[in-house]
């Protein structure tokens, strides 16, 4: 019984919107740079997805906690400072515990700051809602983002290297599609991906 | 590295939009027609070159004081401040210029190529001259990419039959994919 009623709770709705109906990448087309640039390997996609999820959740919550004291005029720069502080945290964490992933992601970890999803959630949700809902909203957006990243990187890694999370999945005779590891492959996969998702959920741009 | 070489490679074979996939949000949002794309492109060239040049001495200062961990925070504040000052300045003294690209200025703070250029010169340990050339050339490369995409989209809006689900932003990715394939052809180009 509880499961059915869950459908109507606020946090469930926020979750569902973030992951499907308002999926940041497929529907809102935000945060594209990093979702294309880091998705040639699944492990990079997971690291990036977790990093972004963490930053979205915690910065949106921080904005929510201070929403009554942040003056309207300087709110953008306040978000920037909050977001970049947490991003530095993620960067140092990756560099300390996962040096290889940190090297592979390079400057893109720093670019979490300019990932529109983070700023977008702070502006669209954090500034108007209490801390607990902002956390859930950030989590949902982050998960929606990570889901897309993992799917896209799965397609790209399998085709480009014949592996998934560095495990050989294709037969050794499989001719690898080098282009999938490069930028054009990313563009094509994400384009087709957006097409697929939009057909599935029936969202069309006029 | 030869400066001319660096400039050519940042515009063509290492195009910041088509090879490093940076600055996609504005590229997709503002590439509906060539006029707006050019305005945005010019604004980006202006801001990226300026912030590249400003961030370089700031980075040296951070390095001298051993606080390079804070470079992200410092860079982003510099960028936001530069954009703000520039907007006020252009609005006051160059009203004509402001009308043509002023509206794009505030959007640039969240354009990742501004921050990316600053992070790249740190990662690749460029000298000051290299940083200046690199900032200018990469932003010109970005402008080239947005104008090309806008040209294609302008034509496409009139005479092409795009599937429903791909309409609007979806198709832009396929256009970008093909463009980026074409730019792969520049690989190995040097003087």
What does this protein look like?
The complex is a heterodimer of chains A (206) and B (191). In chain A, 69% of the residues lie in helices and 2% in strands. Chain A is an all-alpha fold and 206 residues long. In chain A, helix 4 packs parallel to helix 7 (116-126), helix 4 (42-65) packs antiparallel against helix 8 (131-161) and helix 7 (116-126) runs antiparallel to helix 8 (131-161). The mean pLDDT of chain A is 84. Chain B is an all-alpha fold. In chain B, helix 3 (34-65) packs antiparallel against helix 8 (128-159). Chain B starts with a helix and ends in a 7-residue tail after the last helix. The model of chain B has no long low-confidence stretch (mean pLDDT 86). At the A-B interface, helix 3, helix 5 and helix 10 of A face helix 2, helix 4, helix 7 and helix 9 of B.
Could you give the topology of this structure?
The complex is a heterodimer of chains A (206) and B (191).
Chain A: H1 2-6, H2 10-21, H3 32-37, H4 42-65, H5 75-97, H6 99-105, H7 116-126, H8 131-161, E1 163-164, E2 167-168, H9 178-181, H10 183-201
Helix pairs in contact in A: 2-8, 4-5, 4-7, 4-8, 5-6, 5-7, 7-8
Chain B: H1 3-11, H2 24-29, H3 34-65, H4 71-93, H5 95-101, H6 105-108, H7 112-123, H8 128-159, H9 170-184
Helix pairs in contact in B: 1-8, 3-4, 3-7, 3-8, 4-5, 4-7, 7-8, 8-9
